[in-house]
Amino acid sequence: MDSAVTLALARERGFACHALSVSYGQRHSAELIAATELAKSLGAVEHKTVVVDLRSIGGSALTADIDVPEHASHGIPVTYVPARNTIMLSVALGWAEVLAADDLFCGVNAVDYSGYPDCRPEFIAAFERLAALATKAGVEGHGFRVHAPLMRMSKADIVREGLRLGVDFSRTVSCYQADGDGRACGRCDACRLRAEGFSSAGLPDPTRYSRQSGE
Fold first, then answer.
1. For 5, phi and psi rounded to 5 degrees?
2. Structural fold of domain 2-213
3. What confidence score (pLDDT) does residue 104 get?
4. Cβ 172 vs Cβ 156: under 8 Å
5. pTM above 0.70, yes or no
């Protein structure tokens, strides 16, 4: 849902958007199908899915045979995927160079972010500095800006903004263990945060849940 709202915001600001998804071996691969459909409906110029096999290194409940926790945890949870956002933004940076684009958008959030270190403002600022140093475009004086428009928003704020922009949240997939049809478990941390967002916004939850969820 965060990525969909970010795309809608970028489109509202007048950007011609080239949308990127990364198939990294995540167990909730239904999000990739949803991303393709949403990119088209939200007016992206194109949508590309790049394959990066993070399952080969594991280390996360999303990429290894580790149970997805169904309760809130302290510290950095096991659903954290090592270096995921760094890798995703690096792929986006490479594509931006090819496209001669200066602006990258990502849906990271520092309020309801589950404790992931690569969702903080410090990470975005550091990556922006890296982009200027590590690319041909940066060396030649064409700097990059990394936009994280949801950084300071709560999930309720994101829900309200998405509805204002016409995002169909029923088509988004957030669940860490969504089934093949994109139906949510209703129990994992991502589902909990999402449900709390709709509840706090005072709006009905359009999420499609599996029968096993009890929702």
1. -65, -40
2. Rossmann fold (3.40.50)
3. 98
4. no
5. yes
